[in-house]
Design brief:
Largest sheet: 3 strands, antiparallel
Number of domains: 1
Radius of gyration: 15 Å
Helix content: 25-40%
Shape: globular
Structural class: alpha+beta
Number of strands: 3
Order of helices and strands: HEHHEE
Distance between the termini: 44 Å
Number of helices: 3
Strand content: 25-35%
Strand order of the largest sheet: 1-3-2
């Protein structure tokens, strides 16, 4: 498939591996205590932050989800998750 959806069909993917994405989110949580879906995409370059947040939960982090609305870079409003970091579950890691 070529065209607007895939302008460089033979290019190497630039997506970082999941462990690097998780480390970026963890560092963001330590600095800011929360992260929205749009912040994860726009500021950290993680296209599916929800998956990485779930993986952090599975490894013992307590992360709450609050649904909110945010405007994207095009001016469109979206219902997005804001994840609030509460640290490790006692006895984890």
């Amino acid at each position: 498939m070529t065209g607007a959806l895939n302008p460089r069909p033979n290019s190497t993917p630039t997506t970082e591996p999941a462990p690097i994405q998780r480390a970026k989110i963890e560092a963001h949580f330590r600095a800011h205590r929360s992260l929205s879906t749009l912040e994860g995409r726009n500021e950290l370059g993680i296209m599916h932050p929800a998956a990485r947040v779930q993986e952090l939960r599975d490894s013992g982090y307590r992360i709450d989800t609050v649904w909110t609305h945010q405007t994207d870079t095009t001016g469109r409003r979206h219902r997005v998750a804001r994840y609030h970091w509460r640290g490790l579950v006692e006895g984890s890691k």
